Amino acid sequence: MKNYKKLYINLMLVATLGISSSCNKDFLDEELTTAYSNDYYKTEAGIQALAVGTYYQVFALEFGGEVPLTASESGTDEFHAGGDPSNHIWNSYAAGLNSFVTVSNANTIAANTNWDNLYVGIGNANQLIESATAIISSNDAIKKTALGEGYFLRAFNYLKLVRQYGGVPLKLNVSNTVELEFSRATAAEVLEQVIADFTQAYNLLDNIGAPAKISKDAAAHYLAKAYLTRASEINDSWNSATKSADLQKVVSLSDEVIGRHPLAGNFVDLWNYTVADGANEKLPELILSAQFNSSQLTTGGNNQHLYFLSTYDQLPQMKRNLAGGRPFSRLAPTYFAYDVFDKVNDSRFWKSFQTKSIINNKSGSYYDNGDLGIMYIMNSPSDTRFEKTKNTDFIIDSKTGKTIPSVYVAYAADNFGLEKDVRFPSLSKYLDGARIDLTNTKGTRDVILARSADTYLMAAEAKVRLAKVGGASFADALPYINQVRTRAGYKSGEDRSAYTDGSAAWTATGQAGIPISFIKENSYYESNNIPTSTAPTDLTISSISTLPAEDQAVISKLGYTNDYDRMLCLILNERTRELCGEFHRWEDLSRTKTLVARAKAYNIEAAPNIQDFHTLRPIPQTFLDAVYASGRPLSAEEKDQMQNPGY
């Protein structure tokens, strides 16, 4: 599946040539007899090629670019506006976020982009289902695998649609003519279809080829996610009849998946990317990934390495380089994302964020390339060591005795903070030094779509919800949470200052003679101001009445008092600690109806503007303007009726 983009392009080219050749038989006085028509999809080869193309449309095309940032991370408690304004509107919830989105520049994601992409994928999946169903064949690769993939891919996109927009039009067959009349199904109807499709996929697929191929476990994971969505607060006006049974299914499906996908031994193993298709992209924890590769024969690639990166290259003694990354700086972490971690005992913060860079553009005789050039001190609010947030040539590196050109402090006496500047610790889960050079945007590493740590936390959430309806105790969630937290602790003998990310995949050829700025070291000890230790740490939560201090701080800020709200808050916090930046957050907060409260509390640009109606996205105006009713375009009143409230 690593070459599915190349195969998809070839397939679409074949289809285009087939259509164009039928338009003019006299073209160059030749009759083209080798091009394919739609009859190609009636063959086993055509069906398998269509499956490859639909993988690309639904996974690689969607998750390789900027749409997931605007749909899933912007405007949440985890991330706020970075240094580049291209898509600030998706973070701020200002008036320009509507059925048409106010354009900042050519990189601004339009209101209809995600909607259109998802429906194109659904159209491809419909064709795949129809073709694999209609063909007379005893080949399991067609009748089970391709058909199961078709059902999964359709459900995957409809699940995203219903979690973003609520009820949407359901289109379940192939269009052979132009269709203009559509109505919105209810969220209940869409989720019923999603569950039916994922169930079909689960029954048809086996467990071969993960995470590159859709497997039975991938279907089980997303089926559990669909049930959990139906049981969430955003659907409480109609979900009471199915809630308890849905939550039981979340637990049983999650247990099944967890049993075959053990967590990686160390959290850093997930992000220790050194080469395309390397060991970290094949870990048993991974259930499904969007596939990318290092082939230069394909265009595009995984561009996520661009978007979470701070603009290091504009600071003194620094220069852009392949190992340092190309900083588009779309999103910056919030203080919630910093402070929700126990930064002494929880290794995940230090394995998710880059906090040091070395000089690679020395000027003068004082510094050498390789000296510490940038450091972020991620201290606690009670730390009184620092006067200023920004420290230029002031703080001394204990290893060299030299001042560090640029040091930024999370908590200093000036109360300036890290959210008013374009410098911040960069989320490092997507950094990619394996690109061919520093200007190239084509990333090579896969995007993880599903892993079993997420499955553990879905099961934990289901237990919390079951406790609310009398089907479990709140403490039943703790074993699932503690499995994830146990992996997050430091191991005996582990060097807490050690660090790596995908920048380590840099090559001398790619660096082209420019010194590297990447260093395999973090600011753990400078931030925590504690003696060196190699002792193991324990993050176990033993009682629901005594939650970690980091969680209690969030609970107090948001005003939660009862056990259900406190435990759901714990789950959402744990999801940030484990899954920060992995394109889950907006939908998690929307479905739990915690988006508004958390964005107001933690996102400085969103806080003044976000309102309750922002828990759903606007239906794109381009769709509303194109839809007909009874043979005529919709009236203004009918468009308003089809639009989500508030837009």
TrEMBL record:
Keywords: Cell outer membrane, Membrane, Signal. Residues 98-228 form the SusD-like N-terminal domain. The keyword Signal applies. The keyword Nucleotidyltransferase does not apply. Signal peptide: none annotated. It is found in: Cell outer membrane. InterPro entries: SusD-like_N, SusD_RagB_dom, TPR-like_helical_dom_sf. Residues 284-607 form the RagB/SusD domain. PROSITE patterns: PROKAR_LIPOPROTEIN (PS51257). GO terms for cellular component: cell outer membrane. Belongs to the SusD family. This is RagB/SusD family nutrient uptake outer membrane protein.
